[in-house]
Write a structure and sequence with these properties.
Structural class: alpha+beta
Distance between the termini: 13 Å
Largest sheet: 9 strands, mixed
Bound molecules: zinc ion
CATH class of the largest domain: Alpha Beta
């Protein structure tokens, strides 16, 4: 089956005009007028293709194509059409449009998959209102109700405000929730947002997992005093007390796994003058890894070290979001789909979050990465070569067909 690369690329370009401003890239913040135009546009495209379209209680736009057994399971191809301020035209859009192109090809070739297919544009992946991946988490039942009413800064609209503005009822959000057992799997094509594929000259990344993030703030209390008249033996220097951690933390992370990263990205001392002993030291700790156990161990080691060595230390959790491993079976079909498309693929982790992360704990999930030029994203300079875009959607199509073959396709 051949995908229509001209049609697919034209879709990307047309969608890329919505919210576009010369020199400023694309701004389609979730549920603003620009995003609503993109949502309406994709809904129109889905209907044109012959999909049954509905908008769920979380505002997710869902285009459905029935398979050989309409009462059977459903495969999702999803991502998001909202962007960050001054974003690019590929992040998110590729995931939705690759699914749409696959659905159109299946309809045109009159091929029925063993499962239903749903192409989904998820609401507010970029976290314009509060936290990211809202729509996909609402579908999996892992979005908290309070997220509807929280705001990022005073005066900014809450999700509930924006829901009402576009005619959605925030009190009905639970209706977006679906039973994970109704899904056969979740697939998402996305730009890599890093430079690995380009550097290595490889067309397709098969994502092995999405890293989790643990963040903490540590406060150390000492005593500010005169830097000239206070003898070394009688000082309570908060920075000196904290300093060993700056060297130890990276070592603990490295000893735990090759893949884990640990960063102390922000350190402040106060009062903060050349001639005053630091009376207070505040620093941040961020851990990232696919493996939650690795992160928990390093966190506990840090906690214990602080307890044993600095009596005044206070460690506050900013948040702990676990990483996820993606599905081996779906990954193997992406590898096969790549071979059938005549392109090279490599397994790699994702350092950024995606809607796939919301599904992965509950539904077999996989992701296809295509190269980002210069590793740049969330920028007007975000770019992926048309050849790579077409490769990506081809691999998506062949992944579906390969899996369908393995699971008894009827046509
Ligand atoms: Zn994205």
């Amino acid at each position: 089956m051949k995908i229509d690369s001209v049609r697919f690329l034209a879709d990307i370009d047309e969608l890329g005009t919505i919210g576009y401003r010369e020199g400023q890239g694309i701004t389609r913040l979730a549920l603003t007028d620009e995003d609503v135009r993109a949502r309406d546009w994709v809904q129109g495209r889905m209907e044109e293709a012959g999909l049954d379209v509905r908008v769920d209680a979380a505002g997710n736009v869902i285009g459905r194509l029935e398979g050989a057994d309409p009462a059977g399971k459903t495969m999702v191809i999803g991502s998001h059409l909202d962007t960050v301020p001054q974003g690019g035209k590929y992040d998110g859009s590729l995931g939705v449009l690759s699914g749409l192109e696959c659905a159109r090809n299946l309809i045109e070739a009159d091929v029925k998959l063993p499962w239903n297919l749903e192409i989904i544009n998820f609401t507010d992946e970029e976290g314009h209102h509060f936290a990211g991946t809202f729509g996909s988490r609402a579908m999996m039942g892992s979005a908290a109700r309070e997220e509807l009413y929280g705001v990022k800064e005073t005066g900014a609209p809450s999700l509930a405000d924006s829901f009402q503005r576009v005619g959605l009822d925030p009190t009905r959000i639970d209706e977006a929730r679906r039973d994970p057992s109704e899904f056969r799997g979740y697939l998402e094509m996305h730009v890599e947002q890093g430079g690995t594929l380009e550097e290595r000259g490889i067309d397709i990344g098969i994502v092995t997992g999405i890293v989790g993030i643990y963040r903490y703030v540590i406060e150390v209390e000492g005593q500010a005093n005169h830097a000239g008249t206070t003898p070394m033996a009688s000082r309570k220097d908060a920075l000196v007390a904290a300093a060993p951690v700056f060297g130890l933390l990276p070592e603990w992370a490295r000893a735990r796994s090759d893949e884990m990263v640990a960063t102390i990205g922000d350190v402040t001392v106060s009062p903060g003058a050349m001639n005053i002993i630091p009376g207070h030291c505040r620093f941040t700790v961020e851990l990232r890894s696919i493996d939650a156990e690795d992160m928990a161990r390093v966190r506990d080691r840090l906690d214990t070290w602080l307890d044993d060595n600095i009596r005044s230390a206070l460690m506050k959790t900013v948040y702990e979001k676990d990483g996820v491993y993606l599905d081996d079976v779906l990954m193997s079909h992406i590898a096969r789909g790549s071979r059938r498309s005549g392109v090279e693929s490599v397994a790699m982790p994702s350092g950024a979050g995606h809607d796939a992360q919301s599904f992965a704990p509950y539904v077999p999930t996989a992701m296809i990465f295509v190269p980002s030029r210069g590793g740049i994203s969330h920028s007007p300079d975000e770019y992926t070569d048309p050849e790579h875009l077409v490769n990506g959607v081809r691999v998506m199509m062949h992944t579906l067909l390969s899996l369908a073959e393995a699971e008894g396709q009827e046509d």
